[in-house]
Design a protein that fits this description.
The chain is an alpha/beta fold. It is built from 10 helices and 14 strands. Strand 7 and strand 8 form a beta hairpin. The longest helix is centred in the middle third of the chain and has 16 residues. A 6-stranded mixed beta sheet has the order 6-9-10-3-11-12, with helices on both faces. A 4-stranded antiparallel beta sheet has the order 2-1-4-5, covered by helices on one side.
Length: 295
């Protein structure tokens, strides 16, 4: 099978930063290709070059085997490369259907054919099992639904490659599963997905292959069956993970903060204490109330 997208020898320099150093990558139709690396490894820079945001200093991009040079993000979009950014690019004040058809509205002269747009949107939403009203204001729905609408818009644009940058960062566990269902559906349609995430457990659940970047260089690419989380983590940091996170011994001192029966918007009946010299961790799913408690 031929790659739908190839980047060869991509270099990118910014003032004081050598962001990408000769990165080459192949992405195939119908695969989820995960791109992982520490902050600053070059993931976002590479994706921005593929999407037409930046121009490479050196190197080439091939789509369907043809060398392409983007003069703008619109060039990449029209060629079939769509990006779902962590910060969604939807219009919450517009309807669901208007967001799906944004820039592609069916017209009769200067007039938008809303009836046809709503009917077509309803079918697209139904194909993904979404019980969403096409004429409802998009901002009335959850972030997960808004993200699904952006994915459907990419499909409406006949995307060949969809870049998903940290798509699960603000989603609940159930919403993540729904997102993965949609990604599997896209795979079955032959669409290639580049999946960027720091959550290795999710990467191993959904990805077919994993590429690791470190300090602007491609460390390696392999199928998920050839890797595990420890191997990927070592590739990301360049050393054994047990030598990277060293547990420092500290003397725990007297209590400096105590909270008892604390309730507020999003949390109830919380008790905890914090001692001098101690790191106290709070963990929970999205919506559990951690942020509200800390605020």
């Amino acid at each position: 099978m031929n790659a739908i997208l190839s980047v060869k020898g991509i270099h990118k320099r910014f003032p004081g930063v050598y962001a990408l150093k000769g990165v080459s990558l192949n992405v195939f139709p119908g695969e989820v290709h995960a791109l992982v690396g520490e902050n600053g490894a070059g993931k976002s820079t590479l994706m921005n070059i593929i999407a037409g945001v930046f121009k490479p200093d050196e190197g080439k991009i091939f789509l369907d085997g043809e060398e392409r040079v983007w003069s703008s993000t619109a060039d990449a979009l029209h060629a079939g490369i769509s990006t779902i950014f962590q910060e969604l690019s939807v219009m919450p004040n517009l309807s669901v259907a208007e967001n799906i058809f944004l820039g592609m509205e069916p017209l009769k002269g200067p007039i938008v054919k809303f009836g046809g747009m709503y009917r077509a949107s309803k079918k697209l939403l139904g194909d993904f099992g979404l019980d969403v009203k096409p004429d409802e204001r998009l901002g009335n729905y959850t972030i997960a639904i808004q993200q699904m609408v952006e994915i459907i818009r990419a499909i409406k644009r006949k995307a060949k490659v969809i870049i998903m940058d940290e798509p699960t960062s603000s989603l609940t566990e159930k919403e993540v599963e729904k997102t993965f269902e949609v990604m599997r559906h896209l795979k079955s349609e032959g669409i290639a997905i580049i999946f960027i995430s720091h959550k290795l457990e999710e990467v191993f659940e959904i990805a077919d292959r994993i590429s690791v970047l470190r300090d602007g260089e491609l460390v390696g690419t392999a199928g998920v069956e050839e890797l595990n989380e420890d191997i990927v983590a070592e590739m990301m940091v360049g050393r054994k993970i047990d030598s990277y996170y060293i547990k420092e011994v500290s003397e725990i001192g007297q209590e400096v903060l105590r909270v008892e029966g604390f309730s507020g918007d999003g949390f109830e009946g919380v008790d905890f204490s914090l001692n001098r010299g101690e790191i106290l961790g709070f963990y929970g799913l999205v919506g559990a109330g951690r942020t509200e408690l800390m605020e």
